[in-house]
Write a structure and sequence with these properties.
Rossmann fold; globular; single chain; 7 helices; 18% strand; alpha/beta; 7-stranded mixed sheet
């Protein structure tokens, strides 16, 4: 199989999660010339309180919204795994999907949701975070983890860093002062999720959160992560 390349692989549970968690940093990376690829694990087909919108239609709407948002941010490509919303489980099959993509794109950095956030947290976020962490280490690295991937031409790959958004243990803050406007613009693409009546309130909340994340830093607005370097 012909290898593709990405500097950063963003593995997100639903359409719009990455925009909330890492969009400002994604713009910064893209402006540096780094290749960013999104992997969207579910189709978001249950993300509505409108009984008139059927899941199949909503999934198509949300895919379109995600593509529009990714374009604004400078994301190179978006991969939709298409799992139904609220259906993800920590299985060898799901982990293998993520391992395959890590070996295919060979990113230096993988970004995903923190699986260890306590108490109230969407199950899909916990599952995606845990499966991604396991896929990064040790499965993508170990030659015999999935022997059939070797037969496909997908050799082992060692990711250098994994970043978790929505972490309760932040140890890295990314300056998004000059990219915050595009983060908001990308979020506005998700019209099925962010109603016009809520948009101003959401932007105020995000701005205050970004300011609090930047406290003690030399910049005004930040996204916060738990960043782990992988040495072995």
């Amino acid at each position: 199989m012909k290898e593709k390349r990405a500097d950063i692989l963003v593995i997100t549970p639903h359409p719009d999660d990455a925009e909330f968690g890492v969009a400002g940093t994604v713009v910064h990376w893209a402006r540096q010339g780094k290749v960013v690829v999104y992997v969207v694990c579910t189709n978001g087909d249950k993300g509505t309180d409108d009984i008139k919108i059927k899941p199949e239609k909503l999934a198509k709407i949300r895919e379109k919204e995600q593509l529009e948002a990714a374009k604004i941010l400078g994301v190179k490509d978006v991969i939709f795994l298409g799992h139904p919303d609220q259906s993800l489980e920590d299985t060898p099959e799901f982990r293998k999907e993520i391992v395959r993509l890590i070996r295919l794109y060979k990113p230096e950095i993988v970004v995903t949701a923190d699986p260890y956030r306590r108490y109230i947290w969407h199950r899909d976020h916990r599952i995606v975070g845990q499966v991604t962490l396991d896929a990064v280490f040790p499965y993508a690295r170990d030659i015999w983890a999935y022997p059939d991937l070797i037969e496909e031409g997908l050799k082992p790959h060692s990711v250098k860093e994994i970043w978790f958004w929505a972490s309760e243990n932040i140890n890295h803050r990314s300056d998004i002062t000059k990219t915050f406007d595009l983060k908001l613009k990308a979020l506005r693409c998700h019209k099925s999720q962010i109603k016009e009546s809520f948009s101003a309130e959401m932007e105020k909340w995000l701005c205050e959160r970004a300011k609090s994340m930047a406290e003690g830093e030399k910049f005004k607005l930040a996204e916060g992560f738990h960043r782990a370097e992988i040495w072995w």
